[in-house]
């Protein structure tokens, strides 16, 4: 039945009919192969994209963890720093002279500046006291 239709389409010649059927089969094979390659490449790209996105998120998580670790380290450093402890104690003591207060404030700001130079990921540090006084340094 298909052969009869091909013979009618090709004008009745067997050679033309065979050539036409070969061309049709070749086109079908090419289309099936192209679709298979397309979906294979699409799957590969999707897996690579998922992998690179996951790597980016892991790198971001690591960077945030390092930054948080640095901030914790700096806050612990300030908890044991004698200049900062002296500053916090003198704020609550009203018997200190303004000159002594300014001297301690300058020492605290110098200490904060030194810490900022050591940690490039930290751009500013501010010390907030219970009395509403703010001392800080920013890059």
Determine Rg (CA atoms, Å).
Answer: 38 Å
Number of domains: 2
Mean pLDDT: 84
In the sheet with the most strands, the strands line up as 1-2
Number of strands: 2
Number of H/I helices:
4
Largest sheet: 2 strands, antiparallel
What descriptors fit this protein?
rod-shaped; 139 residues; mainly alpha; 2 domains; two-stranded antiparallel sheet; 2 strands
Structure explained in plain terms:
By secondary structure, the chain is mostly helical. The protein folds into 2 domains: 64 residues; 59 residues, no CATH class. 77% of the residues lie in helices and 7% in strands. It contains 4 helices and 2 strands. A hairpin with a 5-residue loop joins strand 1 and strand 2. Helix 1 crosses helix 2 and helix 3 runs antiparallel to helix 4. The chain is rod-shaped. The chain starts with a helix and ends with a strand. The model has no long low-confidence stretch (mean pLDDT 84).
Annotate the secondary structure layout.
Elements: H1 2-9, H2 14-80, H3 82-92, H4 98-118, E1 124-128, E2 134-138
Antiparallel strand pairs: 1-2
Helix pairs in contact: 1-2, 3-4
TL;DR of this structure?
This protein has four helices and two strands; from the N terminus they run H-H-H-H-E-E. With 139 residues, the chain is mostly helical. The chain crosses the membrane at residues 20-41.
